From TrEMBL:
<dbReference type="InterPro" id="IPR007325">
    <property type="entry name" value="KFase/CYL"/>
</dbReference>
<protein>
    <recommendedName>
        <fullName>Cyclase</fullName>
    </recommendedName>
</protein>
<dbReference type="InterPro" id="IPR037175">
    <property type="entry name" value="KFase_sf"/>
</dbReference>
<dbReference type="Pfam" id="PF04199">
    <property type="entry name" value="Cyclase"/>
</dbReference>
<dbReference type="GO" id="GO:0004061">
    <property type="term" value="F:arylformamidase activity"/>
</dbReference>
<comment type="similarity">
    <text>Belongs to the Cyclase 1 superfamily.</text>
</comment>
<dbReference type="GO" id="GO:0019441">
    <property type="term" value="P:L-tryptophan catabolic process to kynurenine"/>
</dbReference>
């Protein structure tokens, strides 16, 4: 069965021979120019057969779980990004004191509009390929430059492209790091510890994949739970009570290790997107000599990165059913020239 599903994708597109050398001066480990850049990047691997196969395999009981947090967070906002603002505007005939009918007996009608102001990266998000350039060269996916983004001259290359393609409709797989460590009697990884007690490197990822009886295949979305959600939720709740309180989250947490073998595994497996409950997917900060996952995945390979995802409920359902795959549906916002978007995602079992 898995071999047949593997054949749904052109295997030649999974070869790491497409990637530039790791010592490339401008854009190391990038799939371009070998593979022509596409506004939807690695999502171009998806096709109707993959979507149908995912739905048939994964939708068994009809339960669905949201993967987003609120778009306008009222608690902790990271990287000094402003929390969103939600303004409700009252509309109708006349002012607040007007009677229920006017002088002609016409019923008074009230309606409401709203204005939502958000930073698309202040809460759950997809990072698109215009978010994070290669350090040094300042190059984005396909050779897009800084001024192209500022001047809105990226053409079809924007987060709206993901929405116009119908979003991401495929299979998702979840690797639950805290549960894996617990079930194998290994030291736990406190979410805000970096370096981690047990680094999430390729050997650990592969052992966890085997432990959860997963068979990753091209077209999958890879989600990694670190336990950050517990810290984030507690911090946000306390911040709502005391606005002057200093956040316990000080820009340090563990995640997937930035190593060449990890990004090549992501590429060769054919993952079309990756994500985590933490704010960066990768361990943060990025240590010296590590491979930066952000520029490599986004600007190099065209692989969207999901961050601050709501994974605890999904993990609990996976544990309850003893299966760690599900149908993954995400339709980002159609933001022309957009850098990022709320995922607007659900996991369906």
């Amino acid at each position: 069965m898995s071999d047949a599903k593997q054949d749904l994708v052109d295997a030649s597109l999974l070869s790491s021979s497409h990637l530039t050398p790791i010592d490339h001066k401008s854009h190391p480990l990038s799939s371009w120019p070998s593979i022509k850049p596409n506004p939807i990047g690695r999502l171009s691997l998806l096709n109707p057969s993959i979507t149908v196969a995912a739905a048939r395999e994964c939708i068994q009981v009809g339960k669905s779980f949201p993967i987003d947090w609120p778009v306008y967070q009222s608690g902790t906002c990271l990287f000094e990004r402003p929390c969103g603002q939600h303004e409700i505007k009252r509309r109708g005939y006349g002012d607040d004191e007007k009677q229920q009918t006017d002088e002609n007996g016409t019923p008074w009608v009230v309606c409401y509009d709203e204005i939502l102001t958000i930073n698309t990266q202040a809460s759950s998000q997809w990072d698109y390929f215009l978010h994070f350039s290669y350090p040094g060269s300042g190059v984005f996916y396909g050779g897009i430059k800084d001024q192209d983004i500022l001047n809105r001259k990226t053409g079809d290359f924007c987060v709206a492209a993901l929405a116009k393609a119908g979003g991401i409709q495929t299979r998702g797989i979840l690797i639950d790091i805290p549960l894996y460590l617990e079930q194998n009697n290994l030291p736990s990884n406190p979410p805000l510890l970096n370096p981690a007690s047990n680094p999430v490197d390729l050997p650990l990822l592969l052992r966890a994949v085997e432990h959860f009886h997963l068979q990753p295949r091209p077209g999958d979305v890879l989600l990694v739970r670190t336990g950050f959600e517990d810290v984030y939720r507690e911090d946000s709740e306390k911040a709502q009570v005391d606005r002057h309180r200093e956040s316990a989250i000080q820009g340090r947490w563990y995640g997937v290790e930035g190593k060449e073998e990890v990004v090549k595994w992501i590429w060769e497996t054919g993952f079309v997107a990756v994500g985590s409950d933490n704010p960066t997917f990768e361990s943060w900060p990025v240590w010296e000599n590590a491979v930066w996952m952000h520029p490599t995945l986004l600007s190099g390979m065209g692989i969207p990165i999901g961050e601050i995802l709501r994974l605890n409920e999904v993990a609990s359902e996976c544990h309850r059913q003893n299966r760690w795959s599900f149908y993954f549906s995400s339709v980002p916002l159609q933001i022309e020239n957009g850098i990022a978007s709320p995922p607007n995602a659900v996991a369906i079992f």
